[in-house]
């Protein structure tokens, strides 16, 4: 994986993935994966009021692989809103919708029309873990609750869950490739 080439290809990847937004088949398939994301997102293991373990981002990864960064990013915003409507816990905060958009967008950039390899999955998951889970989510929680105490707990949880998340995502993407969702 040539990092410079990957970064330079992102604008053309985004442009190409925008074509998916006009295909009924893509919108329906993405909607089904979003429904799975919402369903699984409602089922999580609560650790504390602000810390939970869930696996709904796997469906964002599969959607990103099949439908690209833009459609998956927009679907993430819809998924976040629906998850909140189904199971509201705390005030609605749009920062978490931004997180969901970025998660889908990042997965799309890493997986759309690319060969799924373990190093690619590890790097994609690391970017999401560091940038979204540790930095942005901690920032949003600090804005909401005015307490920086969440960061250490989130760090431990993300370190423990990283190999589990990578393994589940890798096998889900490989399985989706075999099924050929398109």
UniProtKB/TrEMBL annotation:
InterPro entries: ECF_S_folate_fam, ECF_substrate-spec-like. The chain crosses the membrane at residues 24-45, 57-79, 91-110, 122-143, 155-173. Keywords: Membrane, Transmembrane, Transmembrane helix. Gene3D superfamilies: 1.10.1760.20. The keyword Transmembrane helix applies. The keyword S-adenosyl-L-methionine does not apply. It comes from the Bacteria. This is Folate family ECF transporter S component.
């Amino acid at each position: 994986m040539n990092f410079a080439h990957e970064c330079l290809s992102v604008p053309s990847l985004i442009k190409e993935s925008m074509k998916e937004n006009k295909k009924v088949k893509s919108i329906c398939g993405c909607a089904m994966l979003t429904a799975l994301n919402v369903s699984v997102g409602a089922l999580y293991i609560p650790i504390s009021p602000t810390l939970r373990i869930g696996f709904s981002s796997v469906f964002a990864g599969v959607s990103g692989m099949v439908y690209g960064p833009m459609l998956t990013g927009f679907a993430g915003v819809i998924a976040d809103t629906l998850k909140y409507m189904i199971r509201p816990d705390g005030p609605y905060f749009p920062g978490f919708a931004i997180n969901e958009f970025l998660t889908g967008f990042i997965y799309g950039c890493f997986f759309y029309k690319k060969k799924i390899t373990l190093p690619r999955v590890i790097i994609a998951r690391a970017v999401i873990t560091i940038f979204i889970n540790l930095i942005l989510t901690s920032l949003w929680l600090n804005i909401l609750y005015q307490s920086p105490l969440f960061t250490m707990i989130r760090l431990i949880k993300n370190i423990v869950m990283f190999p589990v998340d990578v393994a589940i995502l890798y096998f889900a993407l490989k399985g989706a490739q075999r099924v050929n969702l398109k």
